[in-house]
Design brief:
alpha+beta; seven-stranded mixed sheet; 25 helices; 18 strands; 49% helix
Length: 699
């Protein structure tokens, strides 16, 4: 079957845009093909700095013929309706229509046949639309072409379009279209410097091979593999280890079409600067990798760069140019670091009084005071030294005003640790300066030092309570203050450190420290707790656990101890994986459903203890006895926070519940017996609520 080859050749496309652009090109073209009835077998898109390319194979040579029926007016309808029907369907008269009999009358039916078109003609229509409506995050319009003003918005000036279509066994045809004066053809170009001549291509296999001969590696994954392999080998050959950096690798692969890996060096004196600063300097300014000494694990005074050309001098000039720039940047970084060391962290704090954190939440200085107070309250709850915690909270944000963090924001916190150690602070205080930002994502490390944990919780809870107080909550996909991430951070800090604290009390304490007071201040802690419940469900879902169990536990009310909620959810999940758990859930839901129906019918609830004197069947008596025993046992286990034992107690209800539904007719003819049996069903529901609200659990 025929294959489409499309290439859009332009000036350099920013590396950060390439992957999405390739995916957008594939999606837009294939969506339009399917909409036109041209179902394909496979598609793959590629990007280099100077081109977007797409291959779609298995496209039919022609659209299928379409036959549709269109229902018209009733027989005897007004002439205006008939004429409108004829015009819309293209019929010359009603003699060309069929008549369809219907209980509501006889209707005219038009049979409309639309012959399919050649796929190449369809492509000639859809490809210009794709190009003109391409969703670049930023685009430009450039000067006149052939004496006419340019009308195309594209990321960079577009120079050529390659578009061929045809069977694999034949010479493909050029798809006939043009965009902004650029005619589609079958000519592309190789590497800008090493093979700039025009190249005539036919189909994708031929296209990819000729580009490779012209020093262009089309597939970005292949470029990444080549860079990583060559960089590792070059580092190893010189006695070093490559410090891998996936984000940098992705970016560098988008800067070159023919990667050539080279190694440069810098003076050892710069190694006195923290390794993270050296790495950030080299990475951010020159897009180069750093290497380490395998014996010590510390950075070496070498770096690896990726050139886009095989230089005639073996890369000496390229290396020298990069060394010159890196040397200057490292000199600046070293100066910033040494300058920062001359000023103590606490001496920087007065400047925060002039920096607004949020117009409704005050300055950064006010926020630091709130975090200090809250961290001191949390410290005893997590086993942290109060004095150290207060000191850490006092200094934690100070590095934001340093020269190094101003230049490299990604090392905030880390530099706070270095500066705190340099001025003789306690190791826990210094660690908290870095770790109070953690965890910043699902893969980030969770602090375990109690001082770090206390400050991290205070920082995140102050943020959450503050923005809740001014009604700046996340909405839909919008979360400008990263409040979802902060809530997940709190959950992980509590769960992974096995902490026992009341979120409601801590949130209320954080609220008391705010100068702004919301109208519904009493509601805020519980409202925030519901947000934590939603975040916990998200986390459990991502871990493959059942998020509906969170609702079942939270529905009991009064639950603000996240650690106990997590443990209860885990125990409930294991219980429901057992046969006893599954059957008890089914029995409990059956009881709840019957109760709901009968309560709605009678417009009342069936609370209160059943009357044992009205039990006439052994199954009733056995169930009543089992409920009493199980409820006491489960409540005692829950009180000891032994949720596994509570679930084991619940399992004992399964046989009498099964027997009850098998032998007992709930809606007895005697109203008193019926009411008593409904009360017994309510006892089942009440007993299981010792561990969870089973009605919230999905089958």
């Amino acid at each position: 079957m025929p294959e489409l080859l499309l290439e859009l050749f332009s000036e350099e496309i920013p590396a950060r845009m390439q992957a999405k652009a390739a995916d957008d090109l594939r999606r837009m073209v294939t969506d339009k093909l399917v909409a036109e009835g041209l179902v394909y077998e496979g598609a793959k898109a590629f990007a280099t700095p100077r081109r977007l390319a797409l291959t779609v194979h298995g496209i039919p040579a022609r659209q299928p013929d379409l036959k549709t029926e269109r229902r018209g007016p009733k027989m005897g309808a007004p002439d205006a309706a008939v004429q409108g029907f004829l015009k819309a369907t293209g019929l010359n008269s009603l003699d060309e229509a069929k008549i369809q009999r219907d209980p509501k009358g006889d209707f005219y039916i038009a049979l409309i046949e639309k012959p399919g078109r050649d796929a190449i003609d369809v492509l000639a229509e859809i490809l210009p639309v794709v190009i003109r409506t391409f969703p670049w995050p930023k685009s430009m319009r450039w000067g006149a072409r052939s004496g006419k003003p340019g009308s195309l918005n594209w990321v960079r000036p577009l120079h050529a379009i390659t578009a061929t279509f045809g069977p694999e066994t034949e010479q493909p045809d050029v798809v006939p279209f043009s965009v902004d004066g650029i005619e589609a053809g079958q000519t592309t170009y190789g590497h800008r410097f090493m093979a700039p001549a025009a190249i005539s291509v036919r189909r994708f296999e031929d296209y990819e091979a000729k580009l490779l001969d012209a020093k262009v590696v089309l597939d970005p994954e292949r470029r990444k593999d080549a860079i990583l392999t060559d960089a590792k080998q070059l580092a190893f050959a010189q006695g070093f280890d490559l410090v891998e950096d996936q984000n940098l690798l992705d970016e560098v692969a988008g800067l070159v079409e023919w990667p050539v890996v080279l190694m440069g060096s810098f003076e050892e004196e710069y190694l006195a600067t923290p390794a993270e600063v050296i790495r950030a300097t080299i990475r951010n300014n020159q897009k180069c990798f750093v290497v380490s000494d395998p014996k010590t694990g510390k950075l070496a005074n070498k770096f690896i760069l990726v050139a886009n050309i095989e230089a005639t001098d073996g890369g000496k000039t390229i290396i020298a140019g990069n060394e010159r720039v890196i040397r200057a940047r490292l000199s600046d970084a070293k100066f910033f670091y040494e300058t920062d060391l001359k000023t103590k962290l606490e001496d920087r704090l007065p400047k925060f009084e002039q920096i607004v954190f949020h117009e409704k939440l005050g300055t950064q200085a006010e926020r630091i005071k709130r975090i200090e107070r809250l961290a001191a309250e949390i410290a005893p709850l997590v086993g942290a030294d109060v004095a150290k915690t207060t000191r850490a909270a006092h200094l934690a944000k100070a590095d934001l005003l340093t020269e190094v963090v101003g230049e490299f924001p990604e090392v905030q916190g880390l530099m706070g640790k270095y500066y705190a150690l340099a001025q003789g602070e306690d190791a826990s205080v210094a660690a908290a300066c870095e770790e109070h930002y953690k965890p910043q994502g699902p893969a980030d490390r969770v602090p375990t030092d109690p001082v770090s944990v206390a400050v991290a919780l205070a920082d995140k809870l102050d943020t959450l309570v503050g923005f809740w107080a001014i009604d700046e909550k996340p909405t839909g996909s919008k979360d400008p203050y990263a409040l979802r991430r902060a809530a997940l951070g709190v959950i992980r800090l509590i769960a992974e450190n096995a902490l026992r604290l009341s979120l409601m009390k801590v949130a209320a304490s954080a609220l008391a420290g705010l100068s702004v007071k919301p109208a519904d201040a009493q509601k805020l802690p519980s409202d925030l707790l519901a947000f934590f419940a939603d975040r916990l469900k998200v986390q459990l879902r991502e871990q493959g656990a059942r998020h509906d169990l969170v609702d079942a536990v939270f529905a009991l009310g009064g639950q603000d101890d996240l650690l106990m909620i997590v443990r209860r959810v885990e125990a409930l999940g294991k219980f429901l994986e057992s046969d006893d758990g599954k059957n008890l859930l089914a029995g409990t839901k059956r009881a709840s459903n019957i109760l709901s129906i009968e309560e709605k019918k009678d417009k009342r609830t069936f609370d209160g203890a059943p009357d044992a004197a009205l039990y006439s069947l052994g199954e009733e008596k056995a169930l009543a006895k089992a409920i009493g025993e199980v409820q006491a046992e489960a409540n005692a286990a829950v009180a000891k926070e032994d949720f596994a034992a509570a679930m084991s107690a619940m399992a004992k209800l399964r046989p009498p519940v099964d027997a009850f539904f098998d032998k007992v007719r709930v809606n007895d003819d005697d109203p008193k017996v019926r009411e008593n049996r409904l009360k017994l069903l309510n006892e089942i529901r009440s007993a299981t609520r010792a561990v969870a609200d089973f009605s919230k659990i999905q089958d």
